[in-house]
Every structure is written in structure tokens, then in C-alpha cells.
Amino acid sequence: MQKIVFEHVTKYFGGHRAVNDAHFTIEEGEFFTLLGPSGCGKTTLLRAIAGFYRQEEGSIYFGAQKINDVPTHERNIGMVFQNYAIFPHMTVYENVCYGLKARGIPKKEMEQRAMEALELVELTHLRDRVPSDMSGGQQQRIALARAIVIRPGLLLMDEPLSNLDAKLRIKMRSDIRRLQKELNITTIYVTHDQEEALAVSDRIAVMSEGQIQQIASPQDIYAYPQNQFVANFIGTSNFLEGECMANGEEATVHLLGGEFRLRTNKTYQGKVIFALRPERIKLQANQSDNTLAGQIESVTFLGEKASYLIRLAEGMLIDVQEHAIEPHSLRKEKDTIFVNLQLDKTTMFDQSGKEVLY
Ligand code: ATP
After folding, report:
1. HSE of 2 in the Cβ direction (CA atoms, 13 Å)?
2. ipTM of the assembly?
3. If you take atom 3 of ligand 1, which residue's CA is the nearest one?
4. How far apart are CA 134 and CA 193, in angstroms?
């Protein structure tokens, strides 16, 4: 169990900054996720931690030890990758023992630790099988057992569930989370899948173009995105432009032809962009305060909820979601409806995309 510190870490490929000034700390025992779109630098940062890449600027510490010049095999890291990277010709048991043998662990202890690891990933009954005739989920469990059996100070996982089907991904991610908590291993997890990140992490770092955009708990990342990139990348947002005047007590907002008043202790005057989550817009049949008229343009049934695209009087389209509906009582296309915007629970950004009001 180890704390990981990044001190102004920058990694270049040619003139391109793949990771730009990463400066943050991962706490002991934390499940920490690097999340972002393809090419944002997640894997590069993970590889710098593993020692596969050397950053050009800055330092990485494991606890108090600076590891810039420590080779990969001396970093005591367990790793799990998307493509499993297990030996197809060895049995499950031999795969798990591999790292222990390489470390010269005595036979008896090796047996005991390998069986413990197999038990943790629920694979003891398959110990003598070879991975080539096993499912993707089982192969990933072998990779996980092999990573934890060495008792690493740090567990690194790079898109470990990407090759699995949707149902298995959900099962495996909760298994990984359980295992990580049981073993209390500091874990850094890379994914481009926001739902996966929200489900497993203690904290998430959202990355874009090599830069960390925000680090926060899943709940805070969703509820208080710090900039427009995060609001757009995590969940769905309706971005609505308006004018805001906030005096430290109250804000008056002009938006979509309506005037809204919110409580706030901030001061601001100028153009703003609201990132309004679909569940922060309520639909109602009748007009009241803070409502705008619109027409339902399309209805999408999503199982436990329905999504409605609504065209407002000004021509703007917004996405609204309603939960716990009866499948046979969906609202209908072309119906006139009133939308109630819950702006007081919504983040506002200035024209540059930086958060100004919540
Ligand atoms: P993905 O989810 O697609 O794996 P990522 O967020 O992990 O993406 P990286 O693989 O870290 O992104 O890549 C970050 C940037 O660095 C990209 O622009 C990529 O093209 C570039 N890059 C990565 N590895 C190399 C390399 N070995 N040589 C040159 N450029 C590289």
C-alpha cells in the first residue's frame, strides 16, 4: 500500500506533449482512475509510473522514494492490461506462480500464495486448465491473480475490461473493486468509459490533451464539473447560453427568453453557459413559475427511463430524462409541454468554459 506523488510530470513524444505538467497525489489504498478520450495521455502517464517511459520533466514518488531512475522490475508493481498478457501454454496455476518463481519464492510459500490469489479471483477449480480454452472473463481473472500474487505496492490496470462483453464488464468491475478494497492496494486504473470510472473509483482524474482537467470523487465530478470539457465528457449536459448578474446573494439569469432567480454567494456579471443535466429538467403539463413552453420532438424508451428531445419556443433543442415511468404511458411526440429548469442545482461556465457559479 503506497502513496503516489506526481511532481510536475511532463512527457513529450517529439514536439508533442502527451502528458502536460501532471501534479497531484494518489493516497494510500485509493482506487484512482485516469479517465479521458482516446489519445488524452492516460496510458502514457500509466507507463511513466510503471517505468516503461521516462518523463522529460518532473518526478514521481512512491511514498517518500523518488522512482525516476528505478527500473520497472524494482518498482513492485502488479499490472493488468486489456489483452490479458498471460502465457497460453501454461496452466492457470503456472501462470499465477510465474512472478513468484522469478522472485525466488520458496516452493511451499509459492503454492500457498498462488492458491490464495486463485481463491480471491474465484478460479481454484480451474487451476490445471490452460487459458487458451477459457473465456475472456476467466483469462482476465488469471491476469488479475498474477498481478496480485506478488503482493505489489501498487496495482496498475490499463483498460482491463475492454475486451469483455457488457454484462461481464459490469460483473468484473465490481469484482475488481471488491478485491481492491479487500487487499487495500493503491490502484491506478485507466479507462475511456465514464460509467466504469464512476462505478469503481474513489477519485477520478479527467484528462484531455495531456492535461488533467479535474480530480474529484465520482459524485463531485458529476455534480460539480469544473469546466465545460468535464461537463461534456461526463454524463449528458444541455449547454444553454444566457446572461447572468450575481451580486453575492442572488443571481438574475436571462435564458431562453425567460428570467430566473437563484441564490448564490458569488458575484459575476456577463454571458454564461449552463450545463443542465437532463434529470434537472422537469416536465409538466401546465405553465407555472420558471417554466418554458416546448414541443416533444422525439421519444426514446430506454428501459428504466425515457429520453425526450424537446424543442423550445426559441428553436433550441434540449434533452430531458424521466425515471420510473410506466412503459405504456410515455409522453407522445408533438405534445405541447412545459419544462421546469432547475437552475439552482446547475453549474455555470463563463465564455472560456471555466466554472463561475454553482
Ligand atoms: P487510448 O485510450 O487510445 O489508449 P490514451 O489516452 O491512453 O489513448 P496515450 O496512448 O497516452 O493516450 O497517447 C497520448 C498521445 O501521445 C497521443 O497523441 C499519442 O498519439 C501519443 N503517443 C503515445 N505513445 C506514443 C509513442 N510511443 N510515440 C509517439 N507518440 C505517442
Report:
1. 23
2. 0.96
3. 38
4. 25
